[in-house]
Amino acid sequence: MDPIRNPYAPGAGQRPPELAGRDRELAAFEVVLERIARGRPERSLMLTGLRGVGKTVLLNALRSQAISRLWGTGKIEARPDQSLRRPLSAALHMAVRELAPRHRAPKRIDDFLGVLKAFALRAAPGAKLRDRWQPGIDVPAASGRADSGDIEIDLVELLTDAAELAADVGTGVAVFLDEMQDLGTADVSALCAACHELSQSGAPLIVVGAGLPHLPAVLSAAKSYSERLFSYQRIDKLDRIAADQALVAPAAREGVEYEPKALDALFETSGGYPYFVQAYGKATWDHAPGSPITAADVRVARPAAEAELAVGFFGSRYERATPAEREYLRAMADLAAAAAAGSGTPGTAAPDPAVSTSDDHPGGPAAPVDHAVPTADIARALGRRPASLSPARDSLIKKGLIYSGERGTVAFTVPHFGRYLRGQPTDTVS
Ligand SMILES: Nc1ncnc2c1ncn2[C@@H]1O[C@H](COP(=O)(O)OP(=O)(O)OP(=O)(O)O)[C@@H](O)[C@H]1O
Ligand SMILES: [Mg+2]
Fold it and tell me: Is any atom of ligand 1 closer than 6 Å to the C-beta of 13?
């Protein structure tokens, strides 16, 4: 059918034509916003999940909710090895610009911007140039507030001041932090401490985070009370009803229907993972001659969808791995498959709670499920000492390709990554 009218949107952070299956999270966030604006204690949300399940898209939807309630908002994407100061300054600058037109005392806004500038300029002496960049703020930097150089003290002061501006106009400030697992230890710790402090004083400011499944572990390693500070929401693959809705609703708006068997086939291939729902939906639309879309159309389109995923979803990530890391990933993939087939290293590989199991949909998904793999098994399979593989493992975790949910095991952050890897030729060059 006409590719120009194709409604589906596979891509990182791409707004889907229909945000399916996230009503619970959206409703929960409404309550959080309302309670915080009224000075009531409330835990902020932390969205966790595998790659491509829709964390960024949901974070953006939550931000829209905050904006429609006239909150000041800003967004940050954390990067490994980047200090929080600069991106947080930019995000708060944005948030305060949203609040400023409704604020009656421009002087207070300027005072805050002076503090914000001082905070931004107080990057660690050894910080890289990009971390020392200052936001384009015209007012001179203030002194004596949020500029001590101790990130924890500075954050509390800065966020308290931002919250006060929002309280003046009867709303709040929400900072959205994507890829939160990539924050440095000192920044995580300071952020938790600041959130803790602000929540105790009833200040209307929240940090809404999104990250990989091990984000809760990252936060609680920094501050043990983080479990009580945040409400963790597991963002998962869509159930059958939501996956169908994600496909059917956008098509219906274009006057196109699906045969039930086509939806069966699409759910079987996508496993309900939002990125795959969009990718297979898009390819199927392009290949289908007309409405209704049939199971045969899905079959015909499948190789094209898989070729796109191999490049855009899997390949772009695989390319980030060094030859040694690829070897590690391959061993993981083989062990995960063996465990899934029940014929692997007996009794060691446990099903990864973050990854779907075939019990979820009777009849089983077409794609095999990747299990968490004990690192000791990987070492054995590669004939290496476990310690010698630590650099590869740590680097893969840092690159966001794998995570360690349970001690001594690793799992892929990318759904269906094992199957993709098993289809790749082994690297011979190093
Ligand atoms: N609720 C949903 N319904 C339908 N499609 C969705 C939904 N959520 C996300 N998608 C689609 O899934 C894809 C991935 O979304 P997104 O980039 O937000 O995932 P992510 O979890 O942030 O992934 P990553 O960990 O790689 O950053 C996008 O193409 C998006 O349009
Ligand atoms: Mg994302």
Answer: yes
Model pLDDT for residues 12-27, shown as the tens digit of each residue = 999 999 999 999 999 9
Gap between the Cα atoms of 144 and 36, Å rounded: 28
Give the integer Cα–Cα distance in Å for 60 and 75: 9
- Taking alpha carbons only, the member of 151, 154, 156 closest to residue 198 is 156
CB half-sphere exposure, 211, CA atoms < 13 A? 32
Would the CB of 134 count as within 6 Å of ligand 1?
A: no
187, 175 contact by CB (below 8 A): no
415 pocket-lining for ligand 1 (C-beta < 6 Å): no
Taking alpha carbons only, the member of 187, 177, 165 closest to residue 210 is: 177
Both tokens assigned to 120: 């931004």
User: Residue 320 has what DSSP assignment?
Assistant: T
Alpha-carbon span 14 to 209, nearest angstrom:
18
Give the environment of ion ligand 2: residues with CB less than 5 A: 55-56
> What residues have CB less than 8 Å from 156, skipping those under 6 apart?
193, 194, 197, 198
Contact between 170 and 204 under an 8 Å Cβ cutoff? The reply is no
Q: What is the pLDDT of residues 233-273, one digit of tens each?
A: 999 999 999 999 999 999 999 999 999 999 999 999 999 99
Cα(185) to centroid(ligand 2), Å: 21
Sign of CA dihedral 346, 347, 349, 352: positive
Q: Which amino acid is at 176?
A: F
For the Cβ of 216 lying below 6 angstroms from any atom of ligand 1, the answer is no
Q: Is 271 left (phi over 0), alpha (psi -120 to 50) or beta?
A: left
Return d(Cα 278, Cα 85) in angstroms, integer.
36
* Secondary structure of residue 232 in the 3-state scheme: strand
* CA nearest to 194, candidates 211, 214, 177, 178: 177
Residue 4, both tokens? 């120009």
Q: What is the pLDDT of residues 263-318, one digit of tens each?
A: 999 999 999 999 999 999 999 999 999 999 999 999 999 999 999 999 989 999 99
- Using a cut of 0.85, tell me whether the model's pTM lies above it: yes
CA-to-CA distance for 4 and 107, rounded, in angstroms?
Answer: 50
